[in-house]
Amino acid sequence: MELKIKNRIFEIRSWILLNLSLDPELGVEGNSRFQEFLTSIRQLTAQDRKYQRYPISRSLSVIINHKSLIIIVFAYLLICLFYIPSALAQNTEPGITVSPSIEHLDLASNPPEYNLTYTNNTNSDITLSLKAQDFTQLEDSYKIDFLSPKDASNFRYSLSSWISFENNFIELSPKESKTIKVFIDKDKITKGGHYASILAQVSQPENTKAVSVNPVLSSLLFIRASTGQEYEDGKILDFHPTRDGIDYPSTYILRFENSGNVFVAPYGLIQIYDPLGNLVARGILNTNSLDALPESIRRYDTNITNYQKVLLPGFYTATLSMHFGKENKKLTASVKFFSQGSFDFIKIGGALLLMIIFIIYLERKRKIILDERHSKMEARS
């Protein structure tokens, strides 16, 4: 009877491989989704061996086992046929986009206007309502804070009052793109750097059946005036590695203070030297060209790339050379720190401690054995 069950299992395996187009070389076991199925079959086979000891209940056992096999196979086939991953059912619609998302204009060399392109990737008609809103950067972070009209009127780097649009409203059909012009009043803008966000509020026709949710698209605009009174200045407030204890660091933090009246983007190079003075790692500062706003402090995180596989423990030196602005002003900084390099002092110390304990144990064991031998020799004499 056990042989018949095994033949039946083999027939089921062959049928599944043929109908589900699985790789015959991997077999059923090669598919992780069959593991529970196989476990159930093994349990049934084990039960059959158990009932072989009891001839009276053997026939009943075989009937139950065959029915269980049919139920298991049928249930599994239903799962295979009707299971649809939820990811396939998700809507991957890209939505509405704006380009460019960030724009810089220097009115000394650029015209006081630029183009914004909006694309409707949805399947619905939409209307965009455009406006400009001032913002400021939260100190020592990457976040911005939108200003109310009252606060913006007293903000010296505001820009919204000098921005106008070719059209304040844009209607977009599904899959349609439109471009509008944004104008800056070059003659009235005051000295220094100014910045604002161009907000496009999205609305759909009133007769749509969709849920009424009005998202807002944002793009940032940075303007450098051309009054002759713009100046650049800045300094390094802090430069240090981030790490746990004496681990070898992989990230360095720069806190840069922009004390000028225009926005600047600092760039530079971080180099790491080992205790022997060899260059072992480098990192590029501000690869994303992030701006430091006027009279603000910004943090820049830089990941470094190591050129040495084995790093010795000792005192390391990290140097930073950077430049910023149209005038290409330069700043430098350096920091020294102790690091365990590629080695793990905790693991090494633990291994040494265990070795010392083991040596002490062996030494004591050796003394006990010698004392026992000496005692036996004295007893014999």
Describe this entry's structure for a reader.
- By secondary structure, this protein is an alpha+beta fold.
- The chain folds into three domains: 2-88; 96-224, Immunoglobulins (Immunoglobulin-like); 234-339, Immunoglobulins (Immunoglobulin-like).
- It contains six helices and 19 strands.
- The protein has helices at 2-19, 35-51, 55-82, 86-89, 149-153, 345-380, and strands at 96-99, 102-106, 113-120, 126-133, 135-137, 144-146, 163-165, 169-172, 177-184, 193-203, 216-224, 234-242, 251-258, 267-273, 279-285, 296-303, 305-306, 314-324, 329-339.
- The strands form five sheets. Strands 2-11-10-4-8 form a five-stranded mixed beta sheet, with no helix packed on it.
- Helix 1 (2-19) packs antiparallel against helix 2 (35-51) and helix 2 (35-51) packs antiparallel against helix 3.
- The longest helix is centred in the C-terminal third of the chain and has 36 residues, at 345-380.
- The chain is elongated.
- The termini are far apart.
- Mean pLDDT is 79; it is low at 17-30, 50-64 and 80-93.
Tell me what the CATH architecture of the largest domain is: Sandwich
What's the shape? elongated
The largest beta-sheet arranges its strands as: 2-11-10-4-8
Radius of gyration: 37 Å
User: What is the strand content?
Assistant: 25-35%
* SSE-based structural type: alpha+beta
Beta-strand segment tally: 19
* Main β-sheet description: 5 strands, mixed
Order of helices and strands: HHHHEEEEEEHEEEEEEEEEEEEEH
What CATH calls the topology of the largest domain is Immunoglobulin-like
Helix % is 25-40%
Number of helices: 6
CATH superfamily of the largest domain: Immunoglobulins
